[in-house]
Amino acid sequence: MSPKGVGPQVEGRCSTASLRLHPVTSVSIRELANETSRVFAEIGGSGKPAIVTSRGKPVAVISPIDQDDLYDWVLANAPEFVADMKVADDALVAGEQGTPLEDLVEQFAQSSD
Q1: 3-state DSSP call for residue 59?
Q2: pTM of the full predicted structure?
Q3: Which residue in 54, 7, 3 sits closest to 24, CA to CA?
Q4: Would you state the torsion angle of the CA atoms of residues 88, 91, 96, 102, taken in this order, to the nearest 10 degrees?
Q5: In total, how many domains does the chain have?
Q6: Fewer Cβ atoms within 10 Å of its own Cβ: the N or the C terminal residue of the chain?
Q7: CATH of the domain at 20
Q8: Smallest Cα–Cα separation from 86: which of 97, 70, 75?
Q9: Is residue 6 located within the same domain as residue 53?
Q10: Residue 19 · residue 35 · CB < 8 Å
């Protein structure tokens, strides 16, 4: 991975120790494909995201996440979920009844058959 600091760009490969020293790192698609487990271990161990590059241009970000942060991530990145929650909240405020849990469980069971 090539560390990318806030200041000047630092070229070359880095170890897990140096990954922790830089706020943002990058990994090429090729390196990610060839060393997936190591890359994810470094990202998880550092707690910092990495930018995935293709031919030197950014194409994606891999960001570590834990169970506590998952709900916040979903809310921030799934606007349709937020919209659905608003519709449900508005319906409850208006006094409308929601779908009973038993009905939802039955619908889920039928859809997974």
Answers
A1: strand
A2: 0.49
A3: 3
A4: 0
A5: 2
A6: C
A7: 3.40.1620
A8: 75
A9: yes
A10: no
